[in-house]
Amino acid sequence: MQRHEPLGGAEFAPETTYLNSASSGLLPRRSADALRAAVEEATSYGTMGRDYFAAPAAARAAFARLLDIPAERVAIGSSVAVQSAVVAASLPPGSEVLAPEGDFSSLVNPLGTHPNLTLRTVPLEALADEVRPGTALVAFSAVQSLDGRIADLAAVREAAAAHGALTYLDATQAAGWLPLSATDYDFLVCGAFKWLLCPRGTTFMAFGGDRGGPGTGPDWPAPHAGWVAGEDIGESNYGLIRPAATARRYDEPHAHFAYIGAAASLGLIEELGVAAVHAHNTALADQYRAGLAERGLTPRGAPGSAIVSAPGPADAQERLAEAGVRISVRGGLLRAAFHLYNGTADVERLLELLK
């Protein structure tokens, strides 16, 4: 078996065997240092710092490069649910939204509870086949949070295009390790506090494709536009504003510290490269799958995902936590998530503790 050492070098020195990136990523040392400096700065300059807009501008640009889309097509926010509400508001009354059964609630709940929309859910494997002429939007996660299943991205895009439907991809469990291009989708959202290693409160929305988003299609509404969404921010503090001509019209007033850390974390992902992280993560996940099979346990999903969920002993999470292993249980399954700071030694330790 080929052994894999963690990536990132001195950026990470966790005191635990951390296999829970599907819940929250580890903060790199550079990001922690940047946050400490920002907190210290806040004691003299306030919690917006000396420059409130530099960090989100850098983070927006870095995310855009990682997802292969112009920065002017990227908005910043605080949660996937808020961005899903923006997408819901953009659809005509009576629209049908198609989504996988059991997809993450922050993605589908704002769509399913909107009074003017109808949400229809189907098994993930049938998603492409279930797109029909009346479907206005297909909303789905690239990688399922529960068990790591990867959607057939190409098939869904083709089916949506054939029936004139828009696509809305949640990349929260994918961006940072699975190569993606935001221009393949009309809307792409990403909670960046998992695989992109950003502080919680960092979320990006990208507007891609030819049919939606600023400068390419209808003037989508910006229902939560505040002063940061104005074309001229200096003149947008009072009264009605003129929304920005770019995706910045969908910006939320950001949490300053979250984006200070995000700019540093995204820089690390850029340096390592998503392709290298993908190869590393999936190799570790495959080693874990093989070890589970040797123990008579059958993991959910198929090879190729950095998330592996499988049945485990009822007390597995508690026993692992006592041994210093951070992992999660979702839907009764023990969910392990392998990221750049993990290595073969982590796989071996987990398998040994599952005996």
Task: Label the structural class.
Answer: alpha/beta
Low-confidence stretches: none
Read across the widest sheet, the strand sequence of neighbours is 2-8-7-6-5-3-4
Distance between the termini: 20 Å
Number of strands: 12
Largest sheet: 7 strands, mixed
Q: Work out the helix count.
A: 9
Overall mean confidence score, pLDDT = 93
Shape: globular
Could you spell the SSE succession in H and E letters?
A: EHHEHEHEEHEEEHHEHEEEH
Q: What's the assembly state of these chains?
A: single chain
Q: Portion of residues in helices?
A: 25-40%
Percent of sequence in beta strands = 15-25%
Rg, alpha carbons: 21 Å
Topology:
Elements: E1 17-18, H1 29-45, H2 54-66, E2 74-77, H3 80-90, E3 95-100, H4 105-112, E4 117-122, E5 135-141, H5 153-162, E6 166-170, E7 187-191, E8 203-207, H6 256-272, H7 274-294, E9 307-310, H8 316-322, E10 325-326, E11 328-330, E12 333-337, H9 344-353
Parallel strand pairs: 1-10, 3-4, 3-5, 5-6, 6-7
Antiparallel strand pairs: 2-8, 7-8, 9-12, 11-12
Task: Write out key terms for the chains shown.
seven-stranded mixed β-sheet; 355 residues; alpha/beta; three-stranded antiparallel β-sheet; 12 strands
